[in-house]
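Need tokens for this chain, all 402 residues.
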Amino acid sequence: MTGISAAVPMAGAGVAALLLGGLLTEPMRRFALRHGITDRPSARKAHTRPTPYLGGVAVALATLAAVTAVALARGVFDPVLGVLLGGAAIVCVLGLIDDLRQLGPKIRLFVETSTATLVVVAGGHPTVFGGAVDAVLAVLWIVFITNAFNLLDNMDGAASSLCVVIGGFACLTALAGDPDGLGVVMAALAGACLGFLFHNRNPARIFLGDAGSLFLGFTLASAMMVRHDDAAGLSGPASLLLATLVPTLDTTLVMLSRYRESRPLLQGGTDHIAHRLRRMGLTVPQVVRTLSAFAVVGCLAAMLVTYGLLAPGIALLAASAVGIGAVWLLLKVPAVATASPHVAVPAGALADGVARTALRLKHSGGSGRRHRAVRPMGVPHSREARKATALSPPAGTPVAPQ
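Here are the structure tokens for all 402 residues:
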């Protein structure tokens, strides 16, 4: 199936998921508010009222329903597609449980690794070195991207906007041929996220929650991995890396920043790309558009590699150079997450979210070093500071009461 015949089921899945995503989000928002499943305001957050989490459940339901409906209409029952969707559903439930009662990182990594292994065994993976090494690397990459999206969900509309971009370009790539229906999955996921964005754009009325961010990361990573199962050499890894360059750089920046500043690598904080761009003076919509534009460039390069129009080695070198340059520049932006414990910050100032004046300089006890206490700058929501992820377990940060 190619060309127009491939576009019809993808378009149908995308439109159906968009409508379902938009319609299901509001009932989930009301349900979450009624039962207190919310991200509560604190000194680490800018929103001033409890904001519900269950938007990710609406995205997952819309995606799974749209793909299932298209599969039934086509009469195509692909076992690989079933494994992928089943794994995505398991990861979504894992995130939902974590939203409700906070799981430890070990059990999260175990479930994520197990489901990623099932996808790789059933659907395959690109061949680089040959043998079991490629399979192990494929599983690790899926788990990494799953958690990278979880960490990236730290600003209104950021994670869902990137999913729309990456999923949209994956659909364009799938037009060349889609025997496994993976283009339908990507179209449905992008459509569901687009419908959800009507509720999640700044100021967000509902958040994805771990259920949503993990579902997005796992579904994207798994579908792209299986789609490149016949790639050999560097073309597969290059396409995968370029398409997910933003979440990869975000996680790299955070880990490197914490290492350089002698902070715990696994401790949450507002030191991501989005937060640093906010401190540089960008508004929330501008931050989201900047990240999306960067993702567009990466996805375009990935398409060129996939179609053989760009050498994968050159693409990897260019991506590495751009990534290193971007991380180097962003490291110069202070990674300050919260105000000094010695300075009282009015609640109204936190709600406003914009640091209009610098707080007083304080001397650290007896060391002669000076540091500036800065209140958070307009971070619409930073869920990493609230609770642990598999890459970011708790480190003394109190969990918002449920």
